[in-house]
Every structure is written in C-alpha cells, then in structure tokens.
Specification:
This protein has 568 residues and is of the alpha/beta class. The protein has 17 helices and 28 strands. Strand 2 and strand 3 form a beta hairpin. The structure holds fe (ii) ion.
Length: 568
C-alpha cells in the first residue's frame, strides 16, 4: 500500500521518479494505439505515470533514458514453455535478449522422474532469476497408470496450487481426462485448481465437436494445440484462450494464419513457444523469433504485441501487474527500433535494465540440484526378448516425425519387413520391465540409438538394427547418466549427455547445439531421413500425439488405450 501511495505521489509531481523514459512511441495495449511523444515515469520498479509530460520533478539521482522516437512495449510474457534439453541458467541467459521478462514455465519434466522433489528443486532454480517466473504444475498424464507412478499426490499438489507463483494445472491431455481410473485423478485436480481460482490448462490435440465440449466442461480455459484455422476458431467460440504455438519444436503459425483475416475478436489469442531447443535458441531466438515470424506472415504488429502481453496477463489474472504500460504496473519495458521491427535495444524488468547496448547487464543465478538427480538411470537386469523374424507382426509406423500408426506387416514379405528396426522400451528407474516392439519408417541402416529424454514416461527407448549395438547404447546411457547415444557395435559414434534427470545438460547452449547436431548428423548418415530424429524417438511414449505409442508393457493404441503385443 505504501509503495502505491509513493507511486501516486510521483504521478502528482510531489516525489521524483527513479527513472524517466522519454520521447517514445508508446504502444497502448488497451486501445491498440501507438502514441507518439510519450514518457514513462518509474519509481521502485513500478510505473507511476505514462503520457506526454516529459518533465516531472527530478533530483540528482533521477535517470533519464531518451527513447529517441523508438517504440515502447511492455515486457513480453511467455504463456507456456518448457526447458528443452538445457538447464535453467542457459535458458535465462538466452531468453533475456529477446525481451521476455515473464515466463510461465511448465514443470512437468523434472517431476517425471523425481516427482515432488524434482518439481521443488526446479522451482528453487526459478527463484530470484533476472526474469520473472510463474509456473504450472502438471498432473502427469501417462499412457497407462504405470507411467504415472511419480505423479504428485493430491496433498502434494495443494501447497503448490496455493503458491501465488503457481498459476494452475498444466498439460491435461484431453484423452486422459476421460479414462476411467486415470481420468478421475485428473478431474479431481482440475476442480481443486478451479476452487483455488487457478487455471486449468488444456491440451486438446485432435479433439473436436462433442468430445472437445465434454472436455471443456471440466473447466479447461486454454489450449496450445490447435494447428488449423478451424481448430482455432472452434476453441475461441468455446471461450478458450487459444495459445498459438510457434517455437523451434512446433511451428503452427503458418497453418493458422488465415484466422487473422477473419472479422473476429483476437483478444483471446496468445502466442507461445511451448519450448525452444538449443538449435532454435541459437539460430532463431525465443518468443522474439515467434513475434518476428507472426509479423512477417502478416499479423498486424498491434495484434501480435497484444498476444504476448495483455492477452497473456489477462488469461492468468496478472493484468493488475503485468502486460501493459500503465500506472501501478511493474516497470517491465522494452525499447524496439520501430513498430514492425521486433529486435529489443533495451530491456527493463521492474525498473532495472537487464539488456542494453547489445548485451545482458545481469547474470542468471546459479542453480543447484542434489547429486542423486544426476544419477537417475537405473536398469534392472534384463535380457533382450527375441524379436520375431517370421509371420505377421504389429509394428509402429512413423507417419511423420511425430505421428505414428499401427500397422500389421508380414515379416517374411520383403516389402513388409523393409525399414523395420527393433524398438525396445525399457524401464529406466530400476523397477524392471521391458517390451520389444518394432518400428517402421525410421530409415536406420546400422547400429542403435537410445534416449532417456522420453516425454511423459519413465522408459528409455532404444531403436536398433542389432542387439549388440543396443546393449552398447544402454550401457553408455547408464555411464553418462542419460541423454542420447548412437552406437555401432562396441563404438560410440556420437552422444548427447544429459545427466540432470537424464533429460537436461547444464553445458553452455552452443555446446548443446553442437552435440545434438552431431548426433542427428550421424543418424542421418546412417539412413535416418527425419528432420529431428532425436525428437522423434523422445516422443514414442507420449499420449499427447496419436496413434500408436509404446511402454515397457507393450504398444498402446491411443484410441482405446488397449495394450497390445507384437502378435496379431
Ligand atoms: Fe507444453
């Protein structure tokens, strides 16, 4: 209260501001106007005044920043993202130059292997960083109940949901909410979140019509999965905040761009990355890159800027603090050269510059994780189940780099068995359990590749042409604490060590990019034709993408969640 009283005195001209930004073209997110010749007065990290008065009361300490006719925007808010192979420090370091001052982080990934403790250490790492973090916490939607063994219990969710920095439940895969036993747990969590006035963040890939509406009945308020114009409009009409995903892993803007030609309201559209991989960070950028793409594709800048500021703030009930340049809000301010050129020259968070003259002026805080989180790969004794080599067998066929389908092939027929490799799902938290399936369409000609960076599961996946190479990969993944390894026979050809939870590397972003590139190149040199093969193998066990997936119990057909073997 006292802070706001002081702010009000600054606006009245009775107390000098700490900083004045003058002479800018200010984007008003409420009216969508670019207003010329504007000043912002800042005190104690908050905005006291916004308007044409460039001459407040000053004292010796008042700093004046001349924006020289450049454009002033609120700091960007990233509404849905994940760490992608990288640690928190490198993430922060690479987010700052792009003008994102607030990030809503999904914490599912560290909870996947270490449950509550994984989430808690993750949250500690987000505290006190130069950019502001909020978070969502996921129920953990697995293919079968055994993928959900690390899911937080209701009593563990409660303190998190009561935390003001927790904005809701995230990543509720729509198919899971309707499952008998698994669904009930998620339904209860969703209603708990609603009771606490938190958001229930959806994930509706492929849902439509009555199913989408039935899912929406559980109080779901956002979705970051639409990939067509029709899907965007259907969800907007149901009251969703629609997050259009444009990051290096998934790029949906080109597919939905037609929506911006419609005469409808865009205030519930949000632009998010859903995570950017090291290659994307280095070569394109973060949400700044998504914004540039939006503007290049013809989204009017004023609409695009609303999508990463006020719209996100309103969705998460944060607009009393964030998302606009107006009195009483946090002084998170960007200066960009002109309306259509999104390349921040200056980034301020709560009144302090965090980026200027082409470099960051702050360092990310060091994060700490306990030793045991670097030793997450534990494989019980196992012998390879013999893969069938004759007769008919069920295989998982890659339709795209992410989507798969169930296919029955005759292994004695040369066409049927063409481009089929072994695919082993192996429990990697030491409980035992494995299933040997077959994968078609990868293109791998020799050796084996394995990963512990699998989405939504405690399994590691190893694809291979021979069991000797597969054994080498498993041994190496254990030695390096997880990540991705490609081997031929006894030789390790390339690897990406990701020892934190078997999913993240704490090395500098440039090194991560180089290691992944080398891994992908060696896979491509050995026959793999996919653009991002590492990602393809990581996603083989997620219920988030159709149609046939795999666990250490067997294949799982998403349509009916039937657990299926190789036998037909
Ligand atoms: Fe996500």
């Amino acid at each position: 209260m006292e802070k706001r009283r002081i702010l009000s005195e600054v606006a009245l001209g009775n107390i000098p501001p700490d900083t004045i930004i003058t002479n800018g073209i200010l984007f008003n997110v409420f009216t969508r106007e670019f207003l010329k010749d504007q000043s912002i007065w800042i005190k104690d990290g908050m905005i006291a005044y916004v308007g044409p008065d460039h001459d407040p009361l000053k004292d010796a300490k008042t700093e004046v920043i001349d924006a020289e006719g450049m454009v002033l925007l609120p700091g960007l808010i990233e509404g849905h993202t994940h760490l992608n192979r990288t640690g928190i420090e490198e993430f922060v370091r690479h987010v700052i130059p792009g003008g994102v001052t607030t990030v809503v982080m999904e914490t599912i990934d560290l909870g996947l292997i270490f449950g509550k403790e994984g989430v808690e250490y993750f949250l500690r790492g987000l505290e006190g960083q130069p950019i502001r973090f909020y978070y969502t916490v996921a129920p953990l939607c697995g293919l079968t109940p055994s993928e959900e063994i690390k899911a937080l219990k209701r009593k563990e969710f409660l303190p998190l949901l009561r935390d003001p920095n927790c904005l809701g439940i995230g990543e509720i895969y729509w198919g899971n909410i309707f499952l008998k036993k698994q669904g009930e747990r998620i339904q209860k969590l969703a209603s708990l979140a609603l009771d606490l006035n938190k958001r229930v963040e959806g994930h509706t890939a492929g849902a439509t019509g009555r199913k989408l509406q039935a899912y929406t009945c559980f109080g779901v308020s956002s979705d970051h999965e639409p990939i067509t114009e029709d899907e965007v409009v259907e969800r907007l009409r149901l009251g969703y905040w629609v997050m259009i995903r444009e990051g290096s892993v998934r790029k949906e803007l080109p597919g939905v761009i037609g929506v911006f030609n419609k005469k409808i309201d865009f205030r519930r559209l949000i632009l998010v990355t859903d995570g950017v991989d090291p290659e994307g960070f280095i070569e394109e950028g973060y949400l700044d890159a998504s914004l540039r793409t939006a503007i290049k594709l013809g989204v009017p800048p004023k609409i695009a800027y609303q999508m990463v500021t006020i719209n996100v703030a309103e969705h998460f009930h944060l607009d009393h603090l964030l998302g606009s340049l107006s009195p009483g809000k946090m002084a998170d301010i960007l200066i960009i050269p002109s309306v259509g050129e999104f390349s921040p020259r200056f980034v301020m968070r709560e009144g302090k510059a965090i980026f200027k003259d082409g470099k960051a002026t702050v360092e990310p805080l060091k994060t700490a994780f306990p030793n045991y989180m670097f030793k997450s790969v534990s494989i019980a004794d196992h012998t390879f189940p013999p893969p069938p080599d004759k007769g008919k067998a069920r295989v998982m066929e890659l339709v795209t780099g992410l989507v798969t389908k169930e296919k029955i092939v005759d292994l004695e027929n040369s066409e049927g068995s063409r481009d089929v490799v072994m695919l082993l799902a192996l429990d990697r938290v030491g409980q035992g359990g494995e299933f040997m399936g077959l994968l078609k369409g990868l293109g791998l000609q020799r050796g084996a590749y394995g990963t512990t960076m699998s989405w939504d599961t405690i399994d590691m996946f190893i694809v291979g042409c021979d069991t000797h190479s597969m054994e080498t990969v498993i041994r190496r993944l254990k030695e390096i604490g997880g990540g991705g390894v490609y081997a031929i026979g006894d030789d390790i050809v390339s690897e990406f060590p990701a020892p934190l939870c078997g999913m993240y590397s704490l090395k500098p972003m440039e090194i991560l990019r180089a290691e992944i590139k080398k891994l992908e190149e060696s896979l491509k040199q050995n026959g793999v034709k996919l653009e991002k093969p590492v990602l393809t193998i990581d996603t083989l066990g997620t219920p988030a993408i159709p149609h046939l997936r795999i666990t250490h119990h067997g294949y799982v057909r998403l349509r009916d969640r039937a657990v299926l073997g190789l036998e037909v």
